[in-house]
Specification:
single chain; mainly alpha
């Protein structure tokens, strides 16, 4: 493949890429940890930290939509007219 001819592709690169794709596909980080043979999930978390696309998607899921402000009762002309009539 001409696009990768001048790039250094090692077994570690393939391993890292595969782990990243598994993570993107929604595979549990603990499953990936076991597949990679890591003792600690902290080592595997490196793969989660490097993926900017996943970070952007996670931030979008956390986005809070602004709540519509409720109309203040004093701005309700009918209510104020009723209260004035009392």
């Amino acid at each position: 493949m001409p696009s990768v001819r001048d790039k250094r592709v090692s077994p570690h690169t393939i391993r890292h890429t595969t782990a990243t794709h598994l993570l993107q596909a929604g595979v549990d980080i603990n499953t990936i940890r076991a597949w990679l043979g890591h003792v600690s999930v902290e080592t595997t978390n490196i793969y989660a930290e490097v993926n900017l696309e996943m970070k952007a998607k996670a931030l979008l899921n956390c986005e809070m939509k602004a709540k519509k402000s409720k109309k203040h009762w004093r701005d309700d002309k009918n209510l104020m007219a009723f209260l004035d009539s009392l």
